[in-house]
Amino acid sequence: MAQTKDFYSALQFINKGERFLITSHTRPDGDACGSIAAMMMVLKKLGKKSMPLFLSPMPQWYSFLFETKVPVLGEDLKIEDLDRGDYLQCDGVIIIDTNSYIQLPQFDSWLKKEHKPVLVLDHHVTSDGLGDVEVIDTSAAAAGQIALDIFRYARWDIDAAIATALFISLSTDTGWFRFSNTDSRVYQDAGRLIEAGARPADIYQVLYQNFSVERFRLLTLLMERVEFLFENRVAMGHINFADFAATGATGRDTENLIDEYRRVGSVEVAVLCVEQKDSKIRCSLRSRGGIDVQAIASKFGGGGHKAAAGVTLDGPCEHAKKIISGELETIFGAKK
Predict the structure, then answer these.
(1) Are 4-207 and 213-332 equal in CATH topology?
(2) For 31-46, how does the pLDDT look when each residue is reduced to its tens digit (9 = 90+)?
(3) CB 308, CB 287: distance < 8 Å
(4) How many CB atoms neighbour CB 87 within 10 A?
(5) How many helices and strands (H and E) does the chain possess?
(6) pLDDT band at 335, cuts 50/70/90?
(7) What is the CATH number of domain 4-207?
(8) All structural domains of the chain with their residue ranges
(9) What is the pLDDT of residues 287-302, one digit of tens each?
(10) Predicted pLDDT of residue 92
(11) How many CB atoms sit inside 10 A of residue 190's CB?
(12) Is there a cis peptide before residue 200, judged by omega within 30 degrees of 0?
């Protein structure tokens, strides 16, 4: 767990500044979106200004967390736009849910150039040491837990809106409390957030019972393509870039679809390969905990956790799948 001195340093970092640029990894998930939203709301209560920035579009089901649309780098503004106005004049940068340059495309070069003070809140093993101040807790199930620890340490007010944002962070990174990272600390923190005003039934409705027709079509395609390997211990699927146009879905609609493969009792590892616009393949890997998928991802420049990791490989999808299955063969044996 993070130490009290880390919380103190983070508190000092925030107290010293008035304007903060806040961002997270590309393809922001529930943990990233919820944590950023919670941090923005806390800063507003403190009379400070926050400038959120996403490095790729967030899933639309998290949009209710934000009063106004969060700018997306490459869509709403260019990297050069960070060299002027409030972005350039910010007192510091807060990076949440990553500590890796590779997960900050384009933004990484700006960060290295401007040398702004950086606060990192992260729970991943992979680390490039981006922060002047870092609160790292690899035992935390979500970055939102680290944010909650800081808020409680500082005795900042956690209202219903902040509690909702942090509950989304916590619930999505634990697969709605189903994954192996769900421990007693998770339940204790969830209880605190419910007491502060988070409403789990309403949140579940928004996150998990609110599919668009387009996303459902993409899921249907994914289920039709599933391959079971190594005596059904591995489920592997792919999405080609052309599939987005065919279904009307977007890249953000792929979030959590890989979890459908883990409904099969024999599956120990799930793999989803998604072709990007630049023909690179984003490979997501999930494990029930017995297999260290982070070790596979890190071998090719990716990262994550033992039970959830990701890596980007050269295309096409079949090529990427062959690389991943080759690594899995060393674990499960040659029999497919």
Answers:
(1) no
(2) 999 999 999 999 999 9
(3) yes
(4) 19
(5) 12, 11
(6) low
(7) 3.90.1640.10
(8) 4-207, 213-332
(9) 987 899 999 999 998 8
(10) 96
(11) 21
(12) no
Q: Whose CA is closest to 260, among 238, 290, 235, 240?
A: 235
End-to-end CA distance of the chain: 40
CB-based contact 287:307 (threshold 8 Å) = yes
Provide the residue type at 27 as one letter. Answer: R
Structure tokens at 147: 């944010």
CATH number corresponding to 213-332: 3.10.310.30
> DSSP characters for 191-231?
HHHHHTT--HHHHHHHHHS---HHHHHHHHHHHHH-EEETT
Count the residues in the chain: 336
Model confidence over 104-137: pLDDT tens digits?
A: 999 999 999 988 999 999 999 888 999 999 999 9
Reported pTM: 0.83
Comparing CA positions, the residue from 258, 235, 255 lying closest to residue 321 is 235
Is the confidence at residue 211, as pLDDT, over 90?
no
Token code pair at residue 322: 């062959």
Joined tokens for residue 54: 């996403």
